[in-house]
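Reference record:
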Amino acid sequence: MKMNAEELINTLASWLERQTEATETARQLAVADAAKSLGVAPRTLQHHLTRHGVTYREVVERQRLRKARALLSETQTKITSIAVEVGFSSVQHFCVWFKRVTGQRPREFRIASFQPMSIGTPELSIVAA
């Protein structure tokens, strides 16, 4: 099946998400594995990504960031566990990377974006601190 560059990138992002959920870390996902899964040659995948103005690494990084943001804003998972889950071997490297790409430390991002569940009427909502 032929895909245009945008479809290929969307399919690649979905594949990366499934792989990181299935125990692989984002850092271990090689372009050759992604290309094989998508049914194209590695060079073809890289060519389509380049035509779309992104690299494989950028797609992987976007996916890591999307997952890190979701985990920080929607769960109480420890930052150390989130770091490992998105492919970092140390929480320090994760925190430096996250601040570099978002401008906020993971804890700051969590505080600013956490979506607590409310119970009862709007006047009686419970907010987790």
In short: Helices lie at 5-21, 31-38, 42-51, 56-74, 79-85, 91-102, 106-113. The CA atoms of residues 20 and 44 lie 23 Å apart.
